[in-house]
Write a structure and sequence with these properties.
The chain has about 575 residues and is of the alpha/beta class. It contains 15 helices and 28 strands. The structure holds xanthosine-5'-monophosphate.
C-alpha cells in the first residue's frame, strides 16, 4: 500500500518489531523482512536496519544477509547481532563470548560521527549479547565504546555503513532515540510519510476493493483489534454488509458479554449477535485438570460452535468474505518464526474459516499496523478509551486462570520458603516445563532473588510471595478441584476487584497485562487462593514481573481477602522466561 522507506532485516531477535515500531514513531513507514531478502528486492529503500538476534555468526546456519545489500545506495545500520554480522561479512573479526553481557553499560564517544552526533558524556545504554566485535572491518572506525565493550559503535561514512552493539530501540538506552533519528534523518535522509490515523480513508477504500460487492462476516472477541477492524468495515461498507458474532462461552470475565453487546450497539452494528454457548463449554470441561487437556477441549468446542454459526448463517457462501483483526506482527509470525518446542496450544483453525482463507476470501484491514497504531486509529474513529486501553486477553479466558487438580497435596517447608502443591507452565531453555511454585513468606526487597532461586533450586519454575492470608501457609493444602461455576464466580469477583483498583489508580496503564489466577490451595472453609500477576511486555514473548505500589497492593489484597472462599493472596514475581505469563 505504501513503499517502506526503511526495511528492518529480521535475524530472529525479539527486538525486531520494536525497531520497526520505533522507526514508525518518527512518522517513517518501516516494514520487517526476512534477513536473507535478496538485495534486488530492496532497491529503492532509503535505509536498512539489521536487527539483533540470539545466534552467533559462527554457528552453522545462523541468519545472514545478502552481502550485496552493502553495495546498495541505502545506508545500513546493524544492531547487536547486526553489528557482528556486518563486521563478519565485511572483513572484521568477531570474538565468541562465553558468558555474555546483559544489562546497563555506559557509552563514550571515541570519534565524531553523524550517527552519534549530539551524544555527549557518558550515556546509559542497554546491552544484551554474547559475542563481540574484536576488530573492525577495513574502512570502518570505532565511533563509541562502553566500560564493558571496546567496540560498541562503528561506522564507515563513505559507504554509509554503521553499527552499534547496544540496543538503541529500548527505553533503557538513553540516547537511543537520538541515535535512531540521526540514522533516519541525517544519514538516510528520510522524510515523514506515516501517520496511521490519516490512513483511515485509504484503508476503507481497500476494504471496498477487497470485498468487491460481497458482505463481510466477523467472529469478534471484544478485544481492541477485532473491534477496530469491524468498525472500519462498518464505515466502508455500511451495517447491512457487515455481520458479526460473539461467542459467550461462560468462561468470560465479569460483565464482559454486556460490555461487548453495548459496544457493538453503540457502533451501530445491526447484524451483530451474541451466541449463548455456555452449556457447550463447562460440562465437557468437568474433570479436566491438565492445562493442555483443558485447552484441547476448549479449542474443540470453539471449532464446533464457530462451524455451526458459519453453516447456519450460510456465511461460507460466495457472497461472503471473512473479516479478521489480524495485526502486523501476527502476519510476520505466521510467516514462519517457527518455535521448535510447543509451550502452549493457542488456537485451532475452524475448517470453514480455513477454506475461506485458502480461497483468499478474507479482509484484514489492520494487517500493516502495530497495536499502538490500531489504538490510534480507534481513537480517531471515536471508540472509547475503556475499549482501546484494554489489555490483551487469552482466547480460553478464565479457564486457564482457574487452576484445577485431582490430587490432595501438602505444602512442604524448604529453607527458602514453601513448596506449593500446585504446578504451572514455564519455559526454560526454550522448552515447556510444568512444575510447582515456591512461595516466600514475604515480598523480598531484592528483585533478582526469584530468578536466582529458580536457577539454584531444582524442580521449580515460579516464585510467588505471600501478601495476605487468613492463617499460616503451613495450614494450607492442595485439594481436588474442577472448573465449577462456584470457582469461576470466585475468580471473576477477584479479577473484577483487581481491575477496578488498578484502573482507578492508573496502574493498568503502566503495565501490559494483569492476569489474576485461582489456585486450589487453602483450608476446608476457604479452599482457594488468588495470585496477582502484573507484567510488562512488548509482545508477550518475554515479560517482566512488575512490582505495584504498596498502597495499591494493600487495597487489592484487603478486598480480595473479603471474597468468600479465599484463603490467601500471593504475588507472582517471576519473569518470562523462566515462567510463562499465564499459569496454564
Ligand atoms: P504465555 O502464558 O504463553 O502468554 O506466556 C503469552 C501471551 O499469550 C496470551 N495467551 C493466549 N492468547 N489464546 C490467546 O489468544 C491462548 O490460548 C493464549 N494463551 C496465552 C497470554 O494472555 C499472554 O498475553
Amino acid at each position: 500500500m505504501i513503499n517502506p522507506q526503511i526495511v528492518v532485516l529480521d535475524t530472529g531477535g525479539q527486538y525486531c518489531h520494536l525497531i520497526a515500531r520505533k522507526v514508525r514513531e518518527f512518522h517513517i513507514y518501516a516494514e520487517v523482512r526476512p534477513s536473507e531478502t535478496p538485495a534486488s528486492q530492496l532497491e529503492g529503500v532509503r535505509g536498512l536496519i539489521i536487527s539483533g538476534g540470539p545466534a552467533s555468526v559462527y554457528e552453522p546456519g545462523s541468519p545472514t544477509v545478502d552481502p550485496a545489500i552493502f553495495a546498495l545506495r541505502a545506508p545500513t545500520l546493524g544492531i547487536c547481532y547486526g553489528q557482528q554480522l556486518m563486521a563478519h561479512l565485511l572483513g572484521g573479526q568477531v570474538e565468541r563470548g562465553v558468558k555474555g553481557e546483559y544489562g546497563l553499560a555506559f557509552l563514550s564517544v571515541e570519534n565524531p560521527s553523524q550517527l552519534l552526533e549530539g551524544v555527549t558524556g557518558r550515556q546509559q545504554v542497554w546491552m544484551s549479547h554474547r559475542d563481540t566485535v574484536h576488530a573492525v572491518p577495513p574502512g570502518f572506525a570505532v565511533l563509541g565504546s562502553t566500560n564493558t565493550c571496546a567496540i560498541a559503535a562503528i561506522g564507515d561514512p563513505v559507504r554509509g555503513l554503521y553499527a552499534v552493539q547496544f540496543h538503541p530501540e529500548v527505553v533503557h538506552t538513553h540516547p537511543g532515540k537520538r541515535v535512531l533519528s540521526n540514522f533516519l534523518f541525517q544519514i538516510c535522509g528520510c522524510q515523514p510519510d506515516w501517520d496511521p490515523s490519516r490512513r483511515i480513508p485509504i484503508v476503507e477504500e481497500q476494504i471496498r476493493q477487497t470485498a468487491n460487492g460481497r458482505k463481510v462476516f466477523f467472529f469478534v472477541s471484544g478485544g481492541v483489534d477485532s473491534t477496530v477492524a469491524y468498525t472500519l468495515c462498518l464505515r466502508a461498507l455500511g451495517p447491512e454488509r457487515v455481520h458479526g458474532a460473539y461467542v459467550d462461552t461462560g468462561l468470560m470475565r465479569e460483565g464482559e458479554t454486556a460490555f461487548v453487546r453495548e459496544n457493538f450497539q453503540k457502533l451501530g452494528a445491526t447484524h451483530f449477535t451474541v451466541v449463548d454457548a455456555r452449556k457447550e463449554f463447562l460440562p465437557p470441561l468437568e474433570g479436566a485438570t491438565e492445562p493442555e487437556h483443558k485447552r484441547k477441549i476448549i479449542g474443540e468446542q470453539f471449532v464446533a460452535v464457530q462451524e455451526r454459526i458459519l453453516q447456519s448463517g450460510h456465511y461460507t457462501g460466495q457472497e461472503w468474505v471473512l473479516g479478521q483483526g489480524t495485526i502486523y506482527p501476527d502476519t510476520i509470525e505466521s510467516g514462519g518464526t517457527a518455535r521448535a518446542d510447543k509451550i502452549k496450544t493457542h488456537h485451532n483453525r475452524v475448517e470453514g474459516i480455513q477454506k475461506l482463507i485458502d480461497a483468499g476470501r478474507i479482509v484484514e484491514p489492520l494487517s500493516s499496523f502495530y497495536k499502538d497504531e490500531v489504538r490510534e486509529i480507534g481513537r480517531e474513529l471515536g471508540l472509547s478509551a475503556g475499549l482501546l486501553d484494554r489489555h490483551p486477553f487469552p482466547g480460553p479466558a478464565l479457564a486457564i486462570r482457574c487452576l484445577c487438580s485431582d490430587e490432595t497435596g501438602r505444602v512442604e517447608k524448604w529453607d527458602q520458603g514453601w513448596l506449593l502443591p500446585v504446578r504451572s507452565v514455564g519455559v526454560q531453555g526454550d522448552s515447556r516445563t510444568y512444575r510447582p511454585a515456591l512461595a516466600l513468606e514475604t515480598l523480598p526487597a531484592d528483585e533478582h532473588l526469584p530468578g536466582e532461586l529458580i536457577n539454584q533450586l531444582d524442580g521449580i519454575n515460579r516464585v510467588v510471595a505471600l501478601v495476605a492470608s487468613h492463617g499460616p501457609i503451613a495450614a494450607m493444602s492442595g485439594h481436588p478441584a474442577g472448573l465449577t461455576e462456584e470457582r469461576l464466580e470466585r475468580l471473576r469477583r477477584a479479577d473484577a476487584i483487581v481491575r477496578e483498583h488498578s484502573h482507578a489508580s492508573g496502574f493498568d496503564r503502566a503495565i501490559w497485562q494483569f492476569p489474576v489466577v485461582l489456585l486450589p490451595l487453602g483450608t476446608a472453609d476457604r479452599p482457594d487462593s488468588v495470585v496477582l500477576r502484573p507484567i510488562d511486555s512488548v509482545d508477550g514473548m518475554t515479560a517482566q514481573a512488575v512490582r505495584m505500589p504498596a498502597g495499591l497492593l494493600a487495597g487489592i489484597a484487603a478486598s480480595v481477602m473479603a471474597v468468600p472462599g479465599i484463603a490467601a493472596v500471593f504475588y507472582d514475581l517471576t519473569h518470562k522466561p523462566p515462567a510463562t505469563i499465564e499459569w496454564e
